[in-house]
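Predict the holo structure. Ligand: zinc ion.
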Amino acid sequence: MNFESELKQGRFVVGKCTKCHNTNWPPSEYCSKCFGELSYSPVKEPGIVIEWSSKDGQTFGIVEFEGIRVMGAIQGTPKQGQKAKITNCTFDGSPKFTFSVF
Ligand SMILES: [Zn+2]
């Protein structure tokens, strides 16, 4: 399983080390702590909105999933600590996410 190819298909997966269980972010081939092999699995939802800003009617922000913080567009009006789920994700040179808050 590969982070980029999964993301292109709308699945956000994170790599966890099979030896030390470290969650590796940004995605890499081997564990950044012990160089162990990674096992990829879908991130646990929902995430928590950490921060955001709105400009020209568009809201962008940072959402944390399992200790991993990712940036993306946010649909809806976030509040501090609000839950968010991934409504769309893809890879186009870099990871692209859209979240909705609920
Ligand atoms: Zn490790």
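Residues 47-101 form one domain. The two ends are 30 Å apart (CA to CA).
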